[in-house]
Amino acid sequence: PNLCDGASGRNSGVICTGVDAPRGSLERALIRDSISNVRGFCEEHNVPTRECGSLVCAWPWDDDDSGDGGGEGEEGGDEKKIDDGRDDVGSGGREESRDSNRVAAAKLERVLAESRDAGDAAARLSPAEVAKLEPSLSSECRGAVRIEGEIVVDPWLFCLALAAHCRELAAEAGGGEGGEEEGDVLRLGREALLDRSSFDAAAGVWSVATRGTRNGDGGQGDDDDDVDVIRARCVINAAGIDADLVQSRASSAEQCALPPPDFEARPRRGQYLVFAGPNLGDDVEDARREANARIPARPIQPVPTRFTKGIFVYSTLYDQLVVGPTALDQTSRTDDVPDPAVARELASHASRVLGPGFEGLEVVGEYVGIRPGTSKSDYRIEVHPESKFITLGGIRSTGLTASLGIGWHVARSLLPAAVPPPPNDRSGPLEQLARPTPLPDARELAEQFRRRGDGTVEVGGHVYKVTHPLTRMGWAAGTGLASRRT
Question: What is the rounded radius of gyration, in angstroms, for the C-alpha atoms of the chain?
Fold first, then answer.
């Protein structure tokens, strides 16, 4: 496997405020902790961002969506089904139109109240104010709530920053200088063989057997001649959609008191459709004005219901238009083949949201992410001190948003419970870790990506495959932050 081969390599690239995460949940707490630090993290690591907030818009086709259907609430742009709902007010239906406007106003007031209750800066906007702020939107918008705090990022560079800093810290501590060799702290292209692993209860040490994968897929092509054992004082299970399977298999290890997981993964597929931005010409200022007139600068979402936040329409840092994701439950943990019928519905949704401005935008790609939903309504983050095992399960569509908070929660609270520091530990607090070397600028990396021609870039002496479709498509197009312009 490569860096971000799983759910983290198929997300939206939008950091949300988590206003609709369940109150009192660990998910909401970790989101709040994360977003309070994400700006500083991105600045320090040179991860490109666009701090733009979002617009929750009321549309006439959403009038019949009461949100009373069953289902589990989930933040991050989930949608059970795309409902075209093209209700025609009809001639002479002024009273019906007034009723519809009252419904829209009531929904927006609810969104405003919930946002402020969660501590977010939010404001109601009239249709005229929406049109001025986002001229690319259809005139059918009946008003919106502007929510501050949401950020568009390059999702692959966000993860690359974490990986690069990890390698830097390992090298500083005296390990991992071997680059791609055996001593590297990141063992990409290997799979854990839990049926061959063991736990020494007396020593409190795991011996985790790993095997190299020729094809990088953990399936056919496994190299049985390349088996290695990693000894660890604690195992952190962050296997995404397979976190329940990993804990279940680990619990069968000899001498291990690890219980089976108390949750079951429920795969949920989120499909995205990506369009090329408008042809912007050579003048940078004119190009920026043209982009603002054709594609939104902020994520545009409908009024969320009790079980869905709806389909987003937004632009990436590379001036490409993204529509999605859907959220359709499925049994397969691996089926990520885009559905042509869903792609047509996504395109229809974008055409209604953008109106005439959508005409002429061409599809440049599509992708599907399999999000690790579970049978529970909250994250399943648990430590098992006796077994030296930590599970991070159910990190669903809010994973990018909550990632920094999750990391700090594990490092500060859970890891010390599994592996207590020695009495005379002088390593200092986590906040005193060495500062990272900032990533190269996105434009420089995009140029390197196109020059190499093999889908990879080299950062800090290590070669990484660019796995996230949004980064890959943007860099290949050479638009936005990846622009070829001088």
Answer: 24
Widest Cα–Cα separation across the chain: 81
Query: Contact, 242 vs 264, CB < 8 A?
Result: no
Give the position of tokens 């440049």. Answer: 364
User: Residue 308 in 3-state DSSP?
Assistant: coil
Per-residue pLDDT tens, the chain, 486 aa: give them. Answer: 788 988 899 999 999 988 778 889 999 999 999 998 999 999 999 999 999 999 999 999 886 554 433 333 334 444 444 444 444 444 445 555 667 788 888 999 999 998 888 778 899 999 999 999 999 999 999 999 999 989 999 999 999 999 999 999 888 877 544 444 446 788 888 888 988 899 999 999 999 999 987 654 444 455 567 788 999 999 999 999 999 999 999 998 888 899 999 999 999 999 999 999 876 555 555 655 666 678 999 999 999 876 677 899 999 999 999 999 998 999 999 999 999 999 999 999 999 999 988 988 999 999 999 999 898 889 999 999 999 999 999 998 899 999 999 999 999 999 999 998 877 665 656 666 778 999 999 999 999 999 999 999 999 999 999 999 999 999 999 999 998 754
- DSSP for 159-219, please give it: HHHHHHHHHHHHHHTT--TTTTSTT-S--TTEEEEEEEEEEETTTTEEEEEEEEESSSSSS
Query: Rounded CA gap, 419 and 235, in Å?
Result: 10
Q: Position of tokens 């063989």?
A: 193
What is the number of other CB atoms lying within 10 angstroms of the CB of residue 41? Answer: 18
Are the beta carbons of 185 and 173 closer than 8 angstroms? no
Does residue 198 contact residue 225 with C-beta atoms inside 8 Å? no
CB-CB neighbours of 290 under 10 Å: 17
**Selection from 251, 234, 239, 257 nearest residue 390 by Cα:** 234
Q: Which two tokens stand for residue 173?
A: 């501590």
Nearest to 151 by CA among 41, 294, 44, 38: 38
How far, in Å, CA of 166 to CA of 401, rounded?
20
pTM: 0.88
Residue 123: its H or E element: strand 122-125
Exposed/middle/buried for residue 464 (C-beta within 10 Å: 0-12, 13-18, 19+)? buried
Amino acid at 357: G
Strands 144-147 and 54-57: antiparallel
